[in-house]
C-alpha cells in the first residue's frame, strides 16, 4: 500500500512529488500529462528565479526535477477516474483498469476548460471546435472564426488569432464585455473583430468539419448563423473535482474546500492544493507553495498514525 497518491502533474503535483520523495513518503504520482495549464504560455515572467521563460520550457524543467527524485513511482499518461473510501485509506482507479491503494491522497488535478454544452460541440471537438487559441490559432490561417466568451480569456484568444484568422466574430452572452479595457482595445483596434453581444449560442454545425455556428439574439429572439471554420470556446475553467464529488466538500464553483493552514479537505486522508482547491488566487507559484504545505502536513499526519 502507498502512503500517498498524488493526482496531477502540474506545478502543484510536481512540487508535491519532489517534497514527498525527499521526505521518504512511499508515493505514487498519477498524471495525464506533465506541466499543467501554463504549458501553452509563450512567456512567463513571474516564476521566481526566471526573468522570462516559456511555459513549455518551465514545465519541462519542473518535470526533469521531479524525475531526478529516486523515491517516487510515476504513472504518466494515466487518468485517475475514481476514488473510493476504504477502511484503512483509499482506492484510486485509473483508465488503465488499475487500482492503487493508499493511506492518503493529494488532489492536484487543477482545472479544465469549461464547455458550452450545445449540440455539435462534442462532435466537432478538434475538427473546428477548440478551447486553446494559443495552441490551435495557426490552424486558422485565412479562415473566419468565432470566439465564444467576451471576458479576458475570449479577448486573449482574439489576440492569439489576429495574425492568422481572416475574420473574427466575438460572441458574448451578456450585453457588455467583461475583459479589461486595455485587452479589449488591443484586440478591437485590429479592425478584424466583429463583436456581438447578447448572443446565446444554440448549435455548432458542419459536415466532417465545422461550417458554422448558430446563435440567438437574446434581445430580438432572432436566430442567426455565422459561417466560420473555427470556434474557440473561451468561457473559463472548471475545477477537475468530479472524482471526489460526494466524498469531500466542494464549494459552488466545484472547488475542493480546504483548511488553508494545512490544505486538508473535509474528509480525513484527502488533501488538495493548486487550482482545484478554493484558494483565493490562481497562480503557479501559489499552487507550488500550497502543495508543499500539504505534503509537509501529510508527513506529520502519517508520522502521527
Ligand atoms: C495561458 C496561461 C498562462 C499562465 N501564466 C501564469 C504565469 O505567468 N504565472 C503564474 O504563476 N501562473 C500562470 N498561470 C496559472 C497557472 O498555470 C496555474 O495556476 C497552475 O498551473 C495551477 O497548477 P495546478 O498544478 O494546480 O493545476 P494544473 O496546472 O491545471 O495541472 C493539473 C494536472 O493534473 C492533471 N490531471 C487532471 N485531471 C487528471 C486526472 N483525472 N487524472 C490524472 N491527472 C489529471 C493534468 O494532466 C495536469 O498535469 C497561467 C495559466 C494559463 C492557462
UniProtKB/TrEMBL annotation:
Q: Name one GO molecular function term.
A: oxidoreductase activity
Q: Does Chloroplast count among this protein's keywords?
A: no
Keyword Manganese among record annotations: no
Question: What organism does this protein naturally occur in?
Answer: Candidatus Wolfebacteria bacterium CG1_02_39_135
This chain's protein is named FAD/NAD(P)-binding domain-containing protein
What SUPFAM superfamilies does the record tag this protein with? FAD/NAD(P)-binding domain (SSF51905)
Q: Which Pfam families match?
A: Pyr_redox_2 (PF07992)
- Keywords associated with the record: Flavoprotein, Oxidoreductase
